[in-house]
Automatic annotation (TrEMBL), chains A, B:
Signal peptide: none annotated. It comes from Meiothermus hypogaeus NBRC 106114. This is Manganese transport regulator. Its main location: cytoplasm. Homodimer. Keywords: Activator, Cytoplasm, DNA-binding, Manganese, Repressor, Transcription, Transcription regulation. SMART domains: HTH_DTXR.
Length: 239, 239
DNA sequence: TTTTATTTTTAGGCAAGACTAAATCTTTGT
DNA sequence: ACAAAGATTTAGTCTTGCCTAAAAATAAAA
């Protein structure tokens, strides 16, 4: 029996599961409309949450009973409308906090993830509002990830592509750094490859992507080239 | 067996208990040196934590096993040196957050407590440092409560007295508002009775204290007069 | 199609931290 | 001094969220 008029506050774990179902169920471009998501496997959730698959099954049953996910045994899980809203709310908290830590408190953009991960579950709506206000209601966080609005709409997407999928010679701006791995973040930050940075793809080789950033040339391993999303120079315009 | 080389991170509940043992064990003037505290009863902790006495007993045993409190059955509890340090650290977090919410994010001084209560357990040392830096390493929070330094020293105490204990005619400045009750805070805020405000005690009556604030006169109920700590005008100097 | 490998679920447990009810200590009143 | 009252502790449960091991379902391969 679904409890759609759900006003029981969710636990931290529950919120985290919902967030991950959204993230894993969306393409690499980041979360979009609920209809565009695909079901998520128990295993992928277990990996993401650093937890055993059996634990995931247990939690999914609870969330299904709350009407927050649609869960069919052996068949993966997807969010309901209600679960989707919760997930977006958590994402909004996370990304606003990242932006605030970066802009207001001088955190490096590569340092903000861990702190936001803890805080996202513990701030009030008032806090959310005040930092959003202070920041001027930003549409993207320091990693280039979209921030849902107060009414949970996502900002319009721009046509970005993975560095690893570009043709040689192409120039563009880093639009998004889609990893949370601390080592990767540190390296990319060290190379100046943060959102907004200009780069040119020299060529794709077996080991990864040879690029030029300012006057420097680097060979970026495949694993990193895949998480760097690039906005093409002179690419498609929308207006 | 005490585990004095304690580096197991404490739970939120454990930190809260330690904080309350410190607060309840200190006089109304707020926490001072560990030697000046008195043992705290199970009942008073239960009241403060909104929990049944049996639950308190259970937790105290755990904390005693960790070497954070000295606990003798039926006899109350006090902090050990290690527990005292944890309690001060939590208090520092709490009060720095209150100050930051007030000064940086425009929270009213009467609104900050609830938010700080949640956040105090979830911020990193880096976060603590950055907001302390931003604030200029303040010695007191918006309620006038002392903030332990990064090395956990308490700022020198000033000779304040409860409004309810003053003689009529006396003038002074509000030094501290020692309540966390939201209704009381709202009322005091409404009357402009925040730390720094000047007032004069007209007379003590059975129902409370008749005072003058600016051009207004109020009869402040006993319960409120007891939580208002006043710094006497032209009072004892220390230099 | 049948076997094998992989994924997922079930079953049973554990640790925190709360609760209730019952037992036991301490204090207090006379 | 002693009994009643009040405070505290013990004993036994419950819920949450995780675990491991074993069973079952699905998917892949022969």
């Amino acid at each position: 029996m679904h409890k759609l008029t759900n006003r029981t506050p969710l636990s931290e774990a529950q919120e985290d599961y919902l967030k991950q179902v959204l993230l894993l169920g969306s393409g690499g471009e980041g979360p979009g409309r609920l209809e565009d998501t695909h079901p998520v496997s128990t295993q992928s959730l277990a990996d993401q949450m650093q937890v055993k698959p059996a634990s995931v099954t247990g939690m999914l049953k609870k969330l299904a009973a709350l009407g927050l996910v649609e869960y069919e045994a052996y068949r993966g899980v997807r969010l309901t409308e209600a679960g989707y809203r919760v997930a977006l709310e958590v994402l909004r908290h996370h990304r606003l906090i990242e932006a605030y830590l970066h802009e207001a408190l001088g955190y490096g953009w590569e340092e903000v993830h861990a702190e936001a991960e803890k805080l996202e579950h513990h701030i009030s709506e008032a806090f959310e509002e005040r930092i959003a206000e202070w920041l001027g209601h930003p549409s993207h966080d320091p990693h280039g990830d979209a921030i849902p609005s107060a009414t949970l709409e996502l900002p319009p997407t721009t046509p970005n592509r993975r560095l690893s999928a570009l043709e040689h010679g192409v120039r563009g701006l880093v639009a998004r750094v889609a990893t949370q791995d601390q080592d990767s973040l540190n390296l990319l930050a060290h190379l100046g490859l943060k959102p907004g940075a200009a780069l040119q793809l020299l060529e794709q080789v077996a080991e990864g992507s040879r690029i030029q950033v300012g006057k420097e040339r680097y060979l970026l391993p495949m694993s990193l080239a895949q998480v760097l999303w690039v906005h093409l120079e002179g690419g498609p315009h929308d207006g």
